[in-house]
Amino acid sequence: MITHAMVLAAGLGLRMRPITLTTPKPLVSVAGRTMLDRALDHLGRAGIDNLVVNTHWLPDAIKEHLAGRGEVRLSHEDVLLETGGGVAKALPLLGHAPFFVANSDIIWTDGATPALERLAHAWVDADMDALLLLQPVKTAVGYDGKGDFFINANDTLRRRGEADSAPLLFSGVQILHPRLFEGAPEGKFSLNVLYDRALAKGRLHGLVHDGNWYHVGTPEALPRVEALLRAEER
């Protein structure tokens, strides 16, 4: 059973300006619920009671917002550490077993079985250092990239590489094991550095999401995502 989780909430949200000049992107409300609360709600339903949220931009706003959610520990970054550095800094708060990590700048909704439950069920400790939830590009709302991964028959992953496109993108939801961070760089770095190490060892795995996924990248994208979410949540 996974008991710890981290939500990444330290980003600057530059593409969401001017909204994020005064409101950190995780606290932007989409269809009546902040993106940070939506991620924490998923984790709460999964029974996770050891929660860590990292902060950098407008940290006091996030701290005040979380004051009403029970015990959530904050990992503040005076200097933005990116995804890998942010998780590495918070490792002392995340225990010694696999833990969830979720981005707070995306929104996902579940299929028949909650995505976090599916991830936990799919985790094989002997074989995996990281298990990524993947979204089919063709059903991703608000995404205009070329995809990130191909998935092999044994659920290990391959990068898009030189291909024109790949069918799956990283959703921003995952399970990581602390051993993934052994020998990790100091300070600021991307989780992609560690994914590539795990991939080379055949220990980067994926699970395809069977629900919906939304990326809110700009203020102009908000109305469309809100309309789709409200229709889905009726």
What's the layout of helices and strands?
Layout: E1 4-8, E2 29-30, E3 33-34, H1 35-45, E4 50-55, H2 59-66, E5 72-76, H3 82-90, E6 99-103, E7 106-109, H4 115-122, E8 130-136, E9 140-141, E10 149-151, E11 157-159, E12 168-176, H5 191-200, E13 204-208, E14 212-215, H6 222-233
Helix pairs in contact: 3-5
Give an account of the 3D structure:
With 234 residues, the chain is of the alpha/beta class. The protein has helices spanning 35-45, 59-66, 82-90, 115-122, 191-200, 222-233; strands at residues 4-8, 29-30, 33-34, 50-55, 72-76, 99-103, 106-109, 130-136, 140-141, 149-151, 157-159, 168-176, 204-208, 212-215. It has one domain (4-233): Spore Coat Polysaccharide Biosynthesis Protein SpsA, Chain A (Alpha-Beta Complex). Helix 3 (82-90) crosses helix 5. Strand 4, helix 2 (59-66) and strand 5 form a beta-alpha-beta unit. The two termini are 32 Å apart. The chain is built from six helices and 14 strands. The model has no long low-confidence stretch (mean pLDDT 95). The strands form four sheets. The chain has a seven-stranded mixed beta sheet, sandwiched between helices. The protein has a three-stranded mixed beta sheet with strand order 7-14-9. A two-stranded antiparallel ribbon has the order 2-3.
